[in-house]
Amino acid sequence: MKIGIIGLGLIGGSIALKLKEVNNKIIIYGFDQNTDSLDYSLKNNIIDKRFNPDSLIDFDYIFLAIPVESIKKQLKIILDKISKETLVIDLGSTKYQICNSVKTHNNRSNFLAAHPIAGTEFSGPLAAQKDLFNNKVMILCETENTNTSLLLSAIEIFKKLGMTIKTMDSLEHDKHIAYVSHLSHISSFMLGKTVMDKEDDEQTIYDMAGSGFESTVRLAKSSPEMWSSIFIENKKYIIESLEEYILNINNFKKLIEGGDQENLNTEMKKINGIREILKGIK
Amino acid sequence: MKIGIIGLGLIGGSIALKLKEVNNKIIIYGFDQNTDSLDYSLKNNIIDKRFNPDSLIDFDYIFLAIPVESIKKQLKIILDKISKETLVIDLGSTKYQICNSVKTHNNRSNFLAAHPIAGTEFSGPLAAQKDLFNNKVMILCETENTNTSLLLSAIEIFKKLGMTIKTMDSLEHDKHIAYVSHLSHISSFMLGKTVMDKEDDEQTIYDMAGSGFESTVRLAKSSPEMWSSIFIENKKYIIESLEEYILNINNFKKLIEGGDQENLNTEMKKINGIREILKGIK
C-alpha cells in the first residue's frame, strides 16, 4: 500500500508513525514545503520517501495535513490528477468550505472530508506521536459524496489508528467546532496576551502563576499559521461564539461590580455541570 | 506542637496531611462549619482532633483556609483571643483587604498574610493531597508587620511543606494575581458557560471536544463559594483585567472579520512567547 502525506507536522507525522506500526508493508511518501520538516521526517524514519505533489504516483491514499486554506487550494489540483483508485482525505479543522470547493468536481467521490479530534499545542514533525489518535474521535463529513468502497476502506484505516468514527453534516461540524475548539483557542491566546501585556516582569508570572493559569493558557502556544487559517475559514461561527463569550463576560463582570455573590454562585454552580460533560472526554 | 486549621478543604486538608508527615509529634486540631468535611477529616486521620474556634486553646499556629470574605470576618475575632505565642496565618487568594482589616489590631504582629500558589480545580477534604505544596511558591505579604521570630518559624514550616518563599506588597499581590490567576478562572468559567448554553446536546460536546477544550475549561469546575468571594474582594483589579481581556478579544475579532491573516499571525506569534514563560511554572 502506498500512502502520500502532504504536510509533515503534528498530524501528518503522527499518522505516518502509526501507519508504519500497524502495517510494515505500507510505504509512506511525504511532502512538506518546509524542507527542514521534510529532511527531519526522512532522517527519523517518519516517512520512507519524499514525493513531489506535482507528479503524483499511484497512491492508495493521500492525506492532506496542511492549514485549511492550503487544503482548499491543493485539493482541486490533486483531484484533477489522481486515478479512480486513490482516495484523498483532508484532515482540516473546518469542513464546509472545503467540501463546497469540490462539490461539483468530477472526482468528488475520491475525496473524504475528515477531522481528527486530536492534537496538542505543539507543531511540526518533532511533535508527532504514534499514539496521538488512540481512543480519539474522527469526524467524517458528507460521506454520502464519497465512493462507498473507498470510504469503507478509509474507515478501516482510522480504526487501525485507534479511532472512533462519527459522521456529521459539514456546516453542523463547523458550527459546533467553533464553540468547542476554536473559541477555546482564542480565549487562551487572548488570556496569554492580556497577562503578557500587563506583566512586563516575567519573573512575576513565574512566581505567581500556578497550574491553573498554565492549563488555561496552554493553547496559546499553538501554531499561528494553522490557527489564523482556521479562524478566517470559520469566521462566521467563530464570530458568533466570540460575541456570546464577550456578552457572558460582560454580564459576569456586572455581577462582580455589583458584589452580587448570590448570583455569581448560582451562575458558577450551573457551569460546574461541565464536570459531568468533561468526564466523557477522553 | 499544636496546630489549628480552620477550613478543611483542599488547602487546609493538604496542609494537615503534609504537616503530620514531616513531624509526627504535631497535633492537628481541625474545624469546618461543614460537619461532613469535619467528620471525613477526623475519620480519615487528616486531623487528630476537632476544636471550637470560639474557645481557642494554646495553639502554636492557626491556619485560616476559608473563603477570603470569611477570613476577613474571622481574623479579628481570632486575633482578639490568642496568646502572644500564637501565629495566625491566612491562606486566602487576596491579601490587601485582609491585611488592611487588622492593620491597627493590637495583635497585628501575631498575624501573617500568606498565599500558597497551589491548588487544583477540586475542593473539599477528599481533594486534599499531601504533596500539593511541593515545589510551589508561598507568597508572604507585609511581613514587616509580623513578629520576626514568629515569621521565621513559619517560614521554616513552609519550607518543610516543600515551598519556596517570596515576599510582596499586598496591593501589588492583588493586582498581579488578578491577571495570572483570577482572570484565567473567569475566562474558563465563561468558556464553559458559552459552550454549555449553545450545546444542548451533551453528546456533541463529548464527540467534538478534545484535550484542548478540556484544558482550557478545567478551572470551570472550581468551587463557586471560594471564587465568588475572591472576585468580589479583588473586584478592582479583576474588572481592570477583564476590561483589557475584552478589548483584546474585540481587536482580535476585528482581525478575523477583516480576514487579516498577516496581523493575526503577527499577534499570535508574539503570544507564543508564553512558551518560554510557562517553562518557568512548576
Overall geometric form of chain A: globular
Strand % of chain A is: 5-15%
Task: State the helical fraction of chain A.
Answer: 40-55%
Tally of helical runs of chain A: 12
Order of helices and strands of chain A: EHEHEEHEHEEHEHHHHHHH
Of all chain pairs, the largest interface belongs to: A-B, 93 and 93 residues
Number of separate structural domains of chain A: 2
* Average predicted confidence as pLDDT of chain A: 94
| CATH level 4 superfamily of the largest domain in chain A | NAD(P)-binding Rossmann-like Domain
Radius of gyration of chain A, whole Å: 21 Å
Question: What's the main sheet of chain A like?
Answer: 8 strands, mixed
Give the termini distance of chain A in whole angstroms: 31 Å
- Under the CATH scheme, the architecture of the largest domain in chain A is 3-Layer(aba) Sandwich
Low-confidence stretches of chain A: none
Protein described:
2 copies of one chain form a homodimer. Chain A has helices at 10-22, 35-43, 68-81, 96-101, 148-160, 170-198, 202-208, 211-217, 224-233, 235-257, 261-271, 274-279, and strands at residues 2-6, 27-31, 49-50, 61-64, 87-90, 111-116, 137-141, 164-168. By secondary structure, chain A is an alpha/beta fold. In chain A, helix 6 packs across helix 10. The first copy, chain A, is globular, with a radius of gyration of 21 Å. The model of chain A has no long low-confidence stretch (mean pLDDT 94). At the A-B interface, helix 6, helix 7, helix 8, helix 9 and helix 10 of A face helix 6, helix 7, helix 8, helix 9 and helix 10 of B.
